[in-house]
Amino acid sequence: MKKHMAHSLKLMLVLSLVMSLLSACGAPTVQDNYPLESVSGSGNTTSYVYRAAERTVPEVAQELSEQRQPDQISAESTERMFLVYQDQYYHLQQDPNKEEDTLIEVDSKEYVRQNYDSSFLQGYLTATLIGNLFDSFGGGGNGKYRGYTNKDTYKPREGTFRAPTSNDKKLAPPITVERKGSITRRGGDTDTSVGSGGGLFSRKKEPSSGKIDRGKSGGLFNSPKSSYKKPKTRVGGGRIMRRR
Fold first, then answer.
1. What is the number of other CB atoms lying within 10 angstroms of the CB of residue 136?
2. Where are the domains of the chain?
3. Where is the composition biased (Gly residues) (predicted)?
4. What is residue 116's predicted lDDT score, i.e. its pLDDT?
5. Which residues neighbour 230 within 8 Å (Cβ) at sequence distance 6 or greater?
6. How far apart are CA 96 and CA 145, in angstroms?
7. What is the pLDDT of residue 90?
8. Can you give the pLDDT at residue 58?
């Protein structure tokens, strides 16, 4: 009985801790600060461009990386930087027509594969990431696209950019994702630094996150089937005695 109560208490404490961590997560509303400026593509092949007024590329990169650490981040630059998350590529670019502003292009993986020039990406992303990106989709990387600021010279294959509609604004992904304290899964080969200089955002390769195994002997989360033992009985004197 005492063991059962202790087990239940431990389980409640752990669940409370997990719930407190999850409550700290959430996507802050940033569309008011970074208005949606342009949209291209549809479905899983999309590109959304936001404007960060009077913010430099390194400033925006630092803000985003503090809210959620990217899987990879290119070397610090005032003109162009990449932040890579699991399903999205954040391409930060200094607006050539308004140099005090930063354009934040949020591209889906498929958009990058369909449109970007792989040789252009080699200057910002690791060869392993580029290889996995295009190989996992069965090729690609032969487009000429080099980002929104060069869209008129190096045009994307899939569609053209246009002013966002009300529906686009509803479907557009937020610039930031999770606040600090969030729980994220990372692969064993996660590398958060790219480029020789590294700059302000250089980080060493990080180990994989841990995991909770259920149902193993001695674990905190043993299932009822594994922790429950059928009471032993014995027969004697014509009656059945239950061990207490």
1. 11
2. 30-201
3. 235-244
4. 94
5. none
6. 17
7. 95
8. 97
Q: What is the pLDDT of residue 175?
A: 77
What does the alpha-carbon distance between residue 88 and residue 81 come to, in Å, rounded to a whole number? 14
Tell me the C-alpha distance between 13 and 4, whole Å. 14
Q: What is the pLDDT of residue 216?
A: 47
CA distance 188 to 178: 21
Confirm if 102 and 57 have CB atoms less than 8 A apart. Answer: yes
109 CB contacts (<8 Å, ≥6 apart)?
Answer: 87, 88, 89, 133, 137
DSSP E strands: which ranges in the chain?
36-42, 45-52, 72-73, 80-84, 88-94, 102-108, 233-236, 239-242
CB distance 77 to 91 below 8 Å: no
Q: What is the pLDDT of residue 135?
A: 77
The whole-angstrom separation of Cα 184 and Cα 25 is 11
pTM above 0.85, yes or no: no
User: Structure tokens of 44?
Assistant: 């899983």
Its sign, for the CA torsion 210, 212, 217, 218, is positive
Token pair in block for residue 158: 């899939």
- Note the pLDDT of residue 174: 80
Which amino acid does the sequence have at 92? L
